[in-house]
Amino acid sequence: MADTTSFSALSKPSYSLKPNPQIPQKAPLFILPKTLQKPSLFPQKPCLSHTTHKTHITLSSKNPISDLVSTNKKSPDDLSSYIDDDDDKPREECGVVGVYGDPEASRLCYLALHALQHRGQEGAGIVAVNENKVLQSVTGVGLVSEVFNESKLDQLPGDLAIGHVRYSTAGSSMLKNVQPFVAGYRFGSVGVAHNGNLVNYRKLRATLEDNGSIFNTSSDTEVVLHLIATSKARPFFMRIVDACEKLEGAYSMVFVTEDKLVAVRDPFGFRPLVMGRRSNGAVVFASETCALDLIEATYEREVYPGEVLVVDKDGVQSLCLMPHPEPKQCIFEHIYFSLPNSVVFGRSVYESRHVFGEILATEAPVDCDVVIAVPDSGVVAALGYAAKAGVPFQQGLIRSHYVGRTFIEPSQKIRDFGVKLKLSPVRGVLEGKRVVVVDDSIVRGTTSSKIVRLLKEAGAKEVHMRIASPPIIASCYYGVDTPSSEELISNRMSVEEIREFIGCDSLAFLPLDSLKKLLGDESPSFCYACFSGNYPVQPKEVKVKRVGDFMDDGLNGSLESIDGSWVQAPLNQEVHKVSEVGKLSSLQN
């Protein structure tokens, strides 16, 4: 390990990152009443009274969900050709948005989904309610700009809509799994868009199938629709409450009916969901505040963990699911998933990442000439490192934003081809320099080793890696696509072994204790399962995941044919994901 005694003037400060004082902070979950204080835009009204509902007749049906709707689907059925071999990062699964009370609701959803595109690139969809109270759906494979155009948005009139961008967790990558889902049942229609992952999905599905339910997709989200349809609760939004109380795991969801928009967040609050409003009074829900910014909606507050918000002509009603005294919000939202300009869990993502870099500069200093970042997610932490260390930050790696999902490699194989397509080293910045390169995380380590090699080939004298997160040692079961635990390099190697594998001169991670100290009194309200293996909601089921260059398409492949840098390790956790693998080459033929 290279010398780390420089910057001796830096002492360990007591870090604190205060929530933005201009942003309303969430109330402790345990004081949530059955009816929460509603935003001042709407008149105060009890959530279970003074509301007119249809008279429902109690009936039973062995198959209550009928006609799962999907229209305008001219794209290829299989998304698997879009696998990115060199993107060695956890994947955020989904982004959701909902709009109530704006005559251009579907177009606002379209723009908001653009802002949330980083949360999912496999598929996108919008469901809108037209003047005849009919739910119309457009879904497709690919980016938002590829799925929607002027004519498709013209098919989605109305002042009520929800939208979704997807990167799959549960469910194979097929068009039929692209959300939002729309289903007709005995008392009307409902659409749903879901961000998260249900850890009891298989058990719920098996029970529903035993009772006669027929499933059209392999997505865990469809379970929610069946639970709503089979619920005996009244009125309709109480069906949603009844259904959600049977769910375990992570879910931030938006629902749409003929006249209502409903937002729900699980009692632990794993995944973010915020509420805002436009100047015309339209109510907007979105996964991140960056979506509100684009459509000129003012951030109002988070949807609280365990809360159900119902928006209709009478205003906003709030209900509480089974309360949990201690939320477990995903810390990786601040490390990697969310955009730096978003406010997530009441904190500025930019400020969080900047301080992560400052901590690294203080606790893992090294003599260096320049600080660079692995773009784009490592940039803010690198700025923090450079500012604290008093070393210039420069763009030593340039990211290409024009690389498509697929590309043709020349017959004469190019080493590290995928990384070179995306990242180009700047020789003038690197040559003869001692370089600190800051990245947000290391997952398998394969991409990091290629980046180090790229920098040294460009003339870097020394390469010191600084990682703005603790080592990832466990898989996520709450809506993030992390590899199985035996693939995670930090689960099977020490920091020194990882340094040797990557080929850098020194390596340091953000200490978990320092991260918790930074969060202060709010530290217990975050989930650190991927760093500790301690799961707030114990996963009870295995989950099909991608392995290396493979995908769960039902084809069989051998572990030996996976990229040579992948190393199999003995299982060391009680619960593990089962990987079904199929040859990528078969998927692309």
UniProtKB/TrEMBL annotation:
Residues 1-19 have a biased composition (Polar residues). The keyword Disulfide bond does not apply. Signal peptide: none annotated. The keyword Cell inner membrane does not apply. This is amidophosphoribosyltransferase. The lineage of its organism: Eukaryota, Viridiplantae, Streptophyta, Embryophyta, Tracheophyta. Its cofactor is [4Fe-4S] cluster. Pathway: Purine metabolism; IMP biosynthesis via de novo pathway; N(1)-(5-phospho-D-ribosyl)glycinamide from 5-phospho-alpha-D-ribose 1-diphosphate: step 1/2. Its EC number is 2.4.2.14. Keywords: Glutamine amidotransferase, Glycosyltransferase, Iron, Iron-sulfur, Metal-binding, Purine biosynthesis, Transferase. In the C-terminal section; belongs to the purine/pyrimidine phosphoribosyltransferase family. It is an enzyme of class 2 (transferase). Residues 94-314 form the Glutamine amidotransferase type-2 domain. InterPro entries: GATase_2_dom, Ntn_hydrolases_N, PRTase-like, PRTase_dom, PurF, PurF_N.
